Protein 1
Amino acid sequence: MKKSRSVLLAIGAFLLANLKWILGILKFSKFGTTIISMGITLWAYAAFYGWKFAVALVYLIFVHEMGHVIAAKRKGIATSPAVFIPFAGAFIAMKDMPRDAKTEAYLAYGGPLAGMIAFLPALPLYWYTQDPFWGLVIYLGAMLNLFNLLPISPLDGGRIVSVLSTKIWFIGLAGLGVMLFANPGPITVFIFIIGLITWYNRLRGSYQQKLLQYEREKIADFQQSIAKWPALESTWDIRMQMNAEVNAINQEDLKKFYVPFLQDKKRLQRDFKRLDKVYVNRKWELFRLWEREPVLYYDSDPNRPIPSDALRDGERAAQERLGELDEQMHQLTTYYDAPASTKWKVLAAYLGLAAVLSVFFVYAQQILHR
């Protein structure tokens, strides 16, 4: 073991000494990040568990992530290269978000399915050699992908069952809570916290819809107001009005805490006031900027003023925010909608894969205990 670690340290020292030219080569490669992070992860696992275990584990994780990449490519969704994190796994980032939960479930399912296929060659290898190492490969593959099928967001299982009902996330959280009680670990704690936040946000969906709708109304009022400014003969009255509004709302105490669910009416009114404050101040800042902006005319014709850059920028920012609000509203209202036929197919595929992986998991345990 000491000799093995000495070799690993020597290799690590060599790589660090030559890191500059290695990075220089890899940075031109689309998969440079994947190769570097995979190498670091491989070295880290090998330092603690040996090369055979490290290669098997990194291989299983890599194929799992490639399953997501292939599924995303089939749906026309661009992804980043896979990034490995020692003792935490790997991840890919989607450059485009799925249009609905059905598509997201398809992308999520690709990982565990590919992960299962990855360890299937270990079956004939074990039958032929009777080497328990291949049993370990089966065990690792089945365990990793079964864990990923837990119905908790952000795990694959949580993203798959979201087509059925996001209420299932609570069942997954309860199951993971039992696992944490029996065998606590930093990764499972992290997943539990993220899952809890995601589940809570979903529960607050109707509350968020009210806020989004109110902000849409504030933006509409903002757009109507700035559209009238160029036609004003005098800005004095509107300046005095907005100045009074800004002073009044900035003096209000909007930091009071209200208990979610139990005090939602008061909480909602407070959050409405916060949005009022944001858009009153935004409109006031834009007005002051517009007032100081020189008025230009086409061909020096006083009847043909050139549109204000400040107002155009304000309108553009408002439109961009409206697009973001529409996307969030879609996420809350129709994103998780799916026909019954789709739900049945997803349920069958999910339970079927979980059942097959469970069989392999039990079989691998029997191999390792012989």
Protein 2
Amino acid sequence: MDHNQHPHAIEQRKHGSGDKASGHMGQHGWLILIALIALAFNLRSPLTAIPPVIGHIRADLGLNATLSGLLTSIPVLCFGLLTPLVSMLIAGMGLRFSVCLALGGAAIGLLVRPYSGSMGMFAGTLLIGMALAIGNIASLMIIARDFSRQIHMVTGIYTAALNVGTMLTGVFTAPLAELVGWRFALASWAALAVAAMFLWLWADRHPNSNAHGADPTSDAVAKDSLITHPDEKDNAGTGVLWRRPIVWILSAVFAVHLFIYYAITAWLPSYLIEANGMSATQAGIVASSFQILSLIGALGVPVIARHYSPGVQLIVMGLFWMLTPLWMLIAPAQWPLWSLLGGIAQGGIFVVAFMLIMQHAVDLDDNRRISTAVQGIGYSLASLGPIMVGHLHEINDSWIGGFGALSLLALVLVGSGVAVMRVHLPGQTSA
């Protein structure tokens, strides 16, 4: 550790600020955590409900592979393009209403998507993307606001919950479609969003107190939610945001990681059906194992964070991502092994990236700005992943080009890990 680092900043980064450093989460804190988990269940699951039944959708609506890829890419593009607007929206409306808007909008989109023909399918998908874009930013701000002393643990739990949600829709959508049809199977997931919305309203029913009993709208909480170092805060404005190397590094990490993740997520069931001769239900279950195995990375990274730097973690996870699509091509029948490798990579990188945002933000507002910039670039570029892989498969009748490109892209993650090791934390100076 650099001895020139500001001692108060070090203590805040480890423990939080003020009297929060000596306490534990109270009952209200646990309620907020449960509501955060329920929110996370809904932030990716509407996207992963589509791939297990994409064959039925294409047959009924007459969609080609490129248009089918858009059903995953549209929400991801919304995550990117709408993030700056969403950031301002949350700043004006507050977290309580923003979370309700995210979950309520997702529920409406889930109901519209399957029942209005091909145009309704894309309109509902667009509405879902807009709603979940709000949830993406709001969720990270909840963690920063209410769990400053448990950032590693809660970030891991949050990332795990994201993937539990994707597992639920991946496992159950296809068999449900066999019973009641794909339209009702897709629409039924609106119930999960509505339940999460009411749970959030109940957990956050005292908006004047956060998990630690402080006023979340006050300047004190904004400063104490992360760290406050006066020199860094002076340089945290929007005008100089892009002069901070960590913002560019994290943008590259998000873009490449999400590009690979959404490309594989969108086409994994189709690949398994084609390469291994699986049924739609079997492919959905296997694809869900790819999602649920991310729990190992999501929950394992916080444990090893005290022993290995974020840069080292990124390098290792980047190598795992590089090997996953190659292994898929070489040995599709060995899906338990490459699902494990890819699961660890996707869960681990999410946690490392989220923790780096929180570590390098000097207060809650800076957290919002960095999240806006990083997720805006990352999701915008990642939206091309499903389209690219689908298009390359359609024109070449092969998965080699698409999956091979994903493997090469993963090298950017390795380079980003090296770059992260050269960037100082706020309050830290060169030796």
